[in-house]
Amino acid sequence: MNTSIEEKLKEKNINPTAMRMLVLDFMVKQQGALSLTDIEKGLAPADRITIYRSLKNFEEHGLVHSIDDGTGAPKYALCVDDCNTVSHHDLHVHFHCNTCQETFCLPNTTLPVITLPEGFHSGEMNLVVKGTCDKCK
């Protein structure tokens, strides 16, 4: 197991249990965002509930962010380094490929500025572009 995985967990004040290290190591090696089912299949026969709890813990500590890509199951992707327990700074566009069903973070593509009517206050913003990825074109 890569010691940097353990260090990454400790940096976010997450106790580096064996399962958490496995989940993070698996996520680091992937290209796109992953659903709970994707991770469960990749780490079979790992316990689904334990994986889910690990993901929620990661999200609470600013290690991963969840993405609602419209498929009905949230996807999880690694956060940028400056995310923390108070707020996520992953305001970027996500791309969902209709062919391979993968979801990708596009951190260099910023979200458009949205002007809300007076009295409206945003809590979160999610922009998912759907189409065909470069591998499926």
User: Structural class of the helix and strand makeup?
Assistant: alpha+beta
Instruction: Give the low-confidence spans.
Output: none
Q: Report the total helices.
A: 4
**Overall residue-averaged pLDDT value:** 89
Largest beta sheet: what is the strand line-up? 1-3-2
Strand residue content:
15-25%
Strand tally:
6
Helix content: 25-40%
> What does the largest sheet look like?
3 strands, antiparallel
User: What is the global morphology?
Assistant: globular
CA radius of gyration is: 16 Å
Order of helices and strands: HHEHHEEEEE
Terminal Cα span? 36 Å
Walk me through what this model shows:
This protein has 137 residues and is an alpha+beta fold. It is built from four helices and six strands. The strands form two sheets. A three-stranded antiparallel sheet has the order 1-3-2. It has a three-stranded mixed sheet with strand order 5-4-6, with no helix packed on it. Helix 3 packs across helix 4. The radius of gyration is 16 Å and the shape is globular. The N and C termini lie far apart (36 Å).
Keywords, separated by commas or semicolons:
137 residues; alpha+beta; 3-stranded antiparallel β-sheet; 3-stranded mixed β-sheet; 6 strands
